[in-house]
Design goal:
With about 70 residues, the chain is an alpha+beta fold. It contains 1 helix and 5 strands.
């Protein structure tokens, strides 16, 4: 398992900060607009919630499932 951060999908914004799904240490890391956690159940200290487009998630999962990220 690589500790290299691999971007699986982003919202087409180039080098600027943008919603994206990354693979890191065998886990997905999600980058997006931070949203309030007031209505979310079981938010632990240190956790945050982000909003990201469904299409970005779908493209990231397709790339991951295809093994097209090495």
């Amino acid at each position: 398992m690589s500790d290299k951060l691999i971007t699986l999908a982003a919202d087409g914004c180039g080098d600027d900060a943008c919603p994206a799904v990354h693979l890191h240490n065998g886990r997905f890391t999600i980058q997006g607009d931070e949203v309030t956690t007031a209505d979310l159940p079981n938010v632990a200290p240190g956790e945050a919630a982000v909003s990201i487009g469904i299409d970005v998630v779908r493209r990231a999962l397709a790339k991951y499932d295809a093994g097209d990220y090495a």
